[in-house]
Specification:
Number of strands: 8
Radius of gyration: 30 Å
Order of helices and strands: EEHEHEEHEEHHHEH
Oligomer: single chain
Largest sheet: 8 strands, mixed
Shape: extended
Strand content: 25-35%
Distance between the termini: 123 Å
Helix content: 10-25%
Amino acid sequence: MTVGKAKKKQMVNKGGRGGAKKKVADPFLKKEWYEIRAPAIFTNRHVGRTFINKSVGNSIASENIKGRVFSVSLADLNSNEAQSFRVIKLRVDDVQDRTLITNFHGMDFTSEKIKSLTRKGQTLIEAIAEVKTTDGHTLRLFCIGFTKKRPNHLKKACYCQSSQARRIRKKMVEIMNREASSCDIKQLFDKFIPESIGKAIEKECHGIYPLQNVFVWKAKVLKKPKLDLNKLMEFHQGSATSATGEDLGEAIANTYDASDVPETKEIVGDIPKEEQ
């Protein structure tokens, strides 16, 4: 009985050397780069760059890159670190030369933000609603809220009853449907940044049980209408505006010149006293 296996003989060329090594080509030589452009409601329109394989035969690069989704922090889009917990998803809908024209595809909170809101001694209430905007987009919205103490509350915890939670959840779904059905997708995303929907839920649910930290923390685009280039280009025209409609304008270049400041002479020694 033989133990183990016989070693395979190495194939040797007639020249006495092993097989020729395969040349390793740089994979990025077959790529081409594109600029990513965000809609006009953001301060920073230039998100970054991405690459894709060059066009070969029937495979066209500009067509293959359509539908690609990018996740970008709102802090980078608006140059505001206070909004770093919100992540905006942008989808490529059109390609112009080497520029990718994007549209809204979704919104999400970071896991650190959700974990920081959760504490003991309060009730967590969540609601999910499927809404349809005026321009034909169907979205699924996720809302979260927490109970808070009343002004004369003496107990350490502030739990609500299950019947109150059901009424609050029903009110959340009603408000999300009402707010989304009266605007298009651009205006809806404009409501997410200042949390106008969350503030409306807090106000209308105060009579049931006081709430705090109410957010629409996630939005997913389920269905989208047929691409309309005119409507898409409206999202990319004009300067950046804030969520309240205030025009943020364009960035002003730094015109400071050190040569414009007058020179100051250094005084060495004691300053002489004035003659009396």
